[in-house]
């Protein structure tokens, strides 16, 4: 029963974190349209947009690979220490890093809206970041899969 409660509290913490991430994207969308366009003295709006696009896409789409590497590390660590509470805490920290990386896409959208090609282009960065955050929504199945794979590594050790 304690493991079940631990799993439910872990899932709640993960979901609260995800909701905060979505709220940040929503606030960024509003800011993109409410804050005045600032323009750039350093580069043209097209250059700012292209740099923000390249950075956002690289940061956002490499988040999956980074998360897979980090999850593999915490599974291997679990094989040594066997503490499920620590595994779940480490899982949340990996999730937090992924969300921060995806939030950088929203920041890219805000940069485009305020200093690049304007909010009509920046909104697409924000939507993409929000969709990618939505795809990471924590489920019991994903968490049980992590626990199962980690326990299998522990059994092999």
Q: Helix amount, in percent?
A: over 70%
Radius of gyration, whole Å = 19 Å
User: Biggest sheet, in brief?
Assistant: none
- Along the chain, the helix and strand elements come as HHHHHH
- The residue-averaged pLDDT reads 91
Structural class: mainly alpha
Number of helices: 6
pLDDT < 50 stretches = none
How many domains make up the 3D coordinates?
Answer: 1
Number of strands: 0
- Beta fraction of the residues? under 5%
State the shape: elongated
Give the CA-CA distance, first to last residue: 26 Å
Word description of this protein:
With 157 residues, the protein is mainly α. It has one domain (2-156). Helix content is 86%, strand content 0%. The chain has helices spanning 2-34, 45-61, 63-81, 84-115, 119-135, 140-156. Helix 1 (2-34) packs parallel to helix 4 and helix 2 (45-61) runs antiparallel to helix 4.
Give a topology summary:
Blueprint: H1 2-34, H2 45-61, H3 63-81, H4 84-115, H5 119-135, H6 140-156
Helix pairs in contact: 1-4, 1-5, 2-4, 2-5, 3-4, 3-6, 4-5
